[in-house]
Amino acid sequence: MRIDQASKILGRMYRGALPKEQALSTHLFGIKYADEIRDMSIKDIVVGAELPESYKTEIRKGINLAKYVEVRR
After folding, report:
1. Which of 10, 14, 34, 70, CA to CA, is 20 to 30 A from 45?
2. Residue 70 in domain
């Protein structure tokens, strides 16, 4: 996966989420794609998705959670 592809996925997940679940969707993005994005620039992914840079932290949380959880749907 390339940074532009990751940005597109993140943007779609964020904008497709309910307003109160948008931060949650960034965690889920980090969990689902942890292996692919771990060595990428999270800042570049977030900027490419046109989200505030502060969402870097939320994606990192998801990446860190990935080894402890699994997606059910």
Report:
1. 70
2. no
